[in-house]
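Worked example 3 (structure in, sequence out).
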């Protein structure tokens, strides 16, 4: 279950509700995946929101795994099961608000 005080957001999957969370480990993996030079550069990229589809998938996969409800294979299955790009984009927006809003 999503805890807003921890920066969690929710994602409605085909078979239930999943927690999205960006932890330090998730940020480290994203920094490596995107080749950013610093955490600040990663934050700018994430907050700009101008992501490619693979980047969006990577962020949501890391957030699902960090949320603790699924492993990487499970995250792929959840995202594939949703399939609607606008729903996934909205989940990303919700995650950014939960993570970075005061």
């Amino acid at each position: 279950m999503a805890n807003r005080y921890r920066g969690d957001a929710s994602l409605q999957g085909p078979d239930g509700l999943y927690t999205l969370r960006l932890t330090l480990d998730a940020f480290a993996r994203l920094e490596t995946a995107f080749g950013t030079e610093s955490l600040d550069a990663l934050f700018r990229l994430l907050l700009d929101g101008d992501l490619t589809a693979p980047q969006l998938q990577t962020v949501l996969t890391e957030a699902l795994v960090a949320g603790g409800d699924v492993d990487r294979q499970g995250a792929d299955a959840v995202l594939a099961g949703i399939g609607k790009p606008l729903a996934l984009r909205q989940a990303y927006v919700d995650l950014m608000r939960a993570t970075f809003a005061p």
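Notes: The longest strand covers residues 9-13. Strands lie at 9-13, 16-20.
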